[in-house]
Amino acid sequence: MFGFLKWFKLRFVMLAVAVVIGVYRTEIQQVLRNLTDRYLDHSDGNKAGIPLQFQDPNNEASVNLPLFTPEQLATYNGENGAPIYLALLGEVFDVTRGAKHYGTGCSYNFFVGRDASVSFISGEFDEYDPETADNVLTLKPSDLIGLATWKDFYTKDYEYKGKLIGRFYDENGQPTSYNDQYLAQLEQAQKEKTQAEQLLEKYPGCNIEWSEATGTRVWCTPTSGNGKERSWTGYPRKLYSRSTTNFQCACVPEDQVDTLDAAKQVNHGDPMFKPYDNCDRHATECFYRV
Ligand code: HEM
């Protein structure tokens, strides 16, 4: 009698477990996937024999990873227990671990199953147009640097899965001429950024304030720009760089101001200094309205 009761209880418990597994199948899959991810993250990848270099999209070894068509990529959308993938600059990453950001109904679900690189800069998450969504050459040089930073983020934080056939890679996984163009523009943007940083070391920024009554006021002090004390104050000048029509205010040392104003250019014509309109060339503060 007791034997039968035990057997009956056991059958009942097993039935209940089966029902629970059936109902929560998707959630259980998700939990198991997270646990696996966590294990892989925290275990010593090399000791466990996991070839970490395969996770680097810039690594030659990654040519062995799969190529995705846009249609295939679209199926990795997190629905019915599917993993969540997104592409950035033609590189595919598994972001299932970030389901709280990318899952259905979450803030960044827009990026899932597609390459929407431009939206990483524009912040436009409503309309998806496959013709323009990854056309990053329409972006400003500084935005290309922003995109490269996003790519570094995904390379570091998520698993690299392969390449997307399309704008950046052809059917053989080879970089397209568009990709070459993107890389060339990125390199140029990085060079210009470094150049601008070096210039601001040499010609530190001005203090700046705005009021309804006077408009924008820019002025130089011995610590303006980088907060470091220097032996000179300098005169405010509009500093233009080649890639942008915008300018920033830089303090030019007294002993260079005449030469720079006369030359109108430095460093082989790249950046250019201009005096502020209606401001004495030797004034330490200037006012302007945009
Ligand atoms: C161009 C605009 C933006 C883009 C492309 C963007 C993109 C993203 C992405 C992709 C993630 C997920 C990162 C991951 O996988 O861990 C994220 C997380 C997050 N974003 Fe944004 N975001 C933008 C603007 C904003 C703004 C304006 C706010 C705040 C008002 C914001 C707040 C957050 C927060 C709080 C998180 C979660 C951070 C965490 O839990 O670790 N984002 N963002």
UniProtKB/TrEMBL annotation:
Q: Where is the Cytochrome b5 heme-binding domain?
A: 68-165
This protein's GO cellular component annotations are:
endomembrane system; membrane
**Protein's name according to its UniProt entry:** Cytochrome b5 heme-binding domain-containing protein
| Recorded superkingdom | Eukaryota
> InterPro entries, per this entry?
Cyt_B5-like_heme/steroid-bd (IPR001199), Cyt_B5-like_heme/steroid_sf (IPR036400), MAPR/NEUFC/NENF-like (IPR050577)
A Pfam family per the record: Cyt-b5
Q: Which family does it belong to?
A: Belongs to the cytochrome b5 family. MAPR subfamily.
